[in-house]
Structure formats: structure tokens, C-alpha cells
Amino acid sequence: MTAVTCRIATTDDVQAIAALHADSWRRNYRGAYLDSFLDGDVLPERVATWTERISRPSQPTITIVAESDGDVVGFAHTIFDEDGTWGALLDNLHVTHARKSSGIGSLLMAETATAVLRERPGSGLYLWVLEQNEAAQRFYEGRRGTKGDRELGGPFPGGGRAYKIRYAWPDPSILIRGPSETP
Fold first, then answer.
1. In tens digits, what is the pLDDT along the chain, a chain of 183 residues?
2. Residues 140, 129: Cα–Cα separation, whole Å
3. Using an 8 Å Cβ cutoff, are 20 and 74 in contact?
4. Domain at 5-177: CATH architecture
5. 58 φ, ψ (degrees, to nearest 5)
6. Which residues contact 1 (CB under 8 A, 6 or more apart)?
7. Do 95 and 27 form a contact (C-beta atoms < 8 A)?
8. Measured between alpha carbons, how far is 70 from 59 in angstroms, rounded to an integer?
């Protein structure tokens, strides 16, 4: 496999990000999101969302794409200053299904942490993961995320609700060092 590089997303990436996001939802969010929504036209809804997020953000954000051979193979979207206690919200982290468990998620989290530390020194980083997504929880625990609050999430796009769990990194620099390195 060729090397993976990361960069800031542009409007040229909207279609690829939206397609990856829709595929990830269809594969991983059944039971939380309504099947009728997931089986329907998720892509146009995601294109509209990502067009807005990248071209006209309503908050200070950063979207990072992971690229291999010119293809988007993952992305991370972070909202700075989302919470006074927890800091920046890693709102989306998705890796194309064929490249899961290849280090792309860890790379994107390290790039996200670097951006948070650069743009908001002293800020923490947190995210919400669906309770049903046990693989993602193992991933975040492997990156030394602190498991916290459990809340009912939603309603999600298209309807549906499910429990979600917060994972937090009060010091995001831990994500730059990698999952096996000690502080």
C-alpha cells in the first residue's frame, strides 16, 4: 500500500468525504439511525452537510483528510471551543472500510491533536461514540481516551436515537505520541 498523507480539506473534497461518511454510517450505525434513512439517499444529505461545513463553517473548525494515491481514505472534523470543560469536539472520524486497522485513524487523531494544540493551546479534546460501536470504543481506549458520560443521542439525521459515550483527552498531546508510547 502507498503512503498516507494528511492535509486540510478543501471544497474539492466534499464528494469524497460525503461518500465515505455515508458508507460508514450505513455499515456502522444501523440500530441507531433509522434503516429507512440509511437505505435511502444518505449521500445527498451528506454532500449538503459537508459543503456547508467546509465552504461556510459557522464555528471555528478544521477538517483533515487522509489521502493515498489521490484518494480520500479517511477524514476527521473537529470543532474548536465546543465545550468550556472538555474543549474541542472531534465530531467526525471515519476511515474507509477497506483501510480500517491500518493506522489511518491513529494518524488522523494525531493530526487533530496537533491542530488543537496549535490553535487552542491548553484545550482538551473529546468525542462521542455510539454505545453500540464497541470496535470504536476499543480504538479510543487504545489511544488512552478516558471513558466518561453516557447520554441519549439524537435525534439523528433521518430520525433515530441511541446512547452515546464520551471519550476525552484532557491533554491531546498524548495522541501525538501514539498508543504505545508512555507519557
1. 679 999 999 999 999 999 999 999 999 999 899 999 999 989 999 999 999 999 987 789 999 999 999 999 999 999 999 999 999 999 999 999 988 888 999 999 999 999 999 999 999 999 999 999 999 999 999 999 999 999 999 999 888 999 999 999 999 999 996 544 443
2. 9
3. yes
4. 3-Layer(aba) Sandwich (3.40)
5. -90, -10
6. 68, 102
7. no
8. 28
Helix/strand/coil for 125: strand
Q: Cα–Cα distance between 16 and 59 in angstroms, integer? A: 22
Per-residue cell: 41 = 439517499
β 61-68/125-130 pair status: unpaired
Backbone angles phi, psi at 89, to 5 degrees: -100, 120
Residue for cell digits 490553535? 119
Write the secondary structure of 13-28 as one string of H (helix), E (strand) and C (coil): HHHHHHHHHHHHHHHH
Adjacent-strand bridge partners of 135: none
Encode burial over 49-77: b for 16+ CB neighbours within 10 A, e otherwise. Answer: bbeebbeeeeeebbbbbbbbeeebbbbbb
Considering Cα of 177, then 178, then 182, then 183, what sign does the dihedral take? Answer: positive
